[in-house]
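Handover notes (outgoing to incoming on-call)

Open items:
1. Putative tRNA (cytidine(34)-2'-O)-methyltransferase: sequence verified, structure written out, both below. Nothing else pending on this one.
2. Nothing else urgent.
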Amino acid sequence: MYQPRLHIVLYQPEIPYNTGSVGRTCVAVGAKLWLVRPLGFRVDAHHLKRAGLDYWQHLNWQVVDHWEELLENLPVERHWYLTKFATREYTSVEFEPGTVLVFGRESQGLPPEIRDRDPNRGLRIPTRPEVRSLNLSNSVAVLTYECLRQWGG
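Putative tRNA (cytidine(34)-2'-O)-methyltransferase structure tokens:
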């Protein structure tokens, strides 16, 4: 059975087009995509087709009903929580195969009970003060390709 080197978690994503872009990145690199409910859209053929996800059949993905179910499936010691509130930059970390990158909702990010679970596991992408945050799919791409860079492709 194929074990992905990288797991991308979208906690309660709201925008299907962002999830579609993240899914495309996951297909490109062989990462598994995890979606934690509730979702801001329906995961069915009609909605996926509207979001332009004609490659969805190639995606290794799973939807879980709640955060605790995700924790049952993925070891917490490999989690990294992406948040603008972190002080540690993503470039300061050596990612290991089996890494779990956790991203929050487009509108609110990760809730404090998740992002503050282990402050040493919080990471940020540096941005200038004029920018509130980066687009979710862009943030996923930045971190995903940093993992691949470290692993030699």
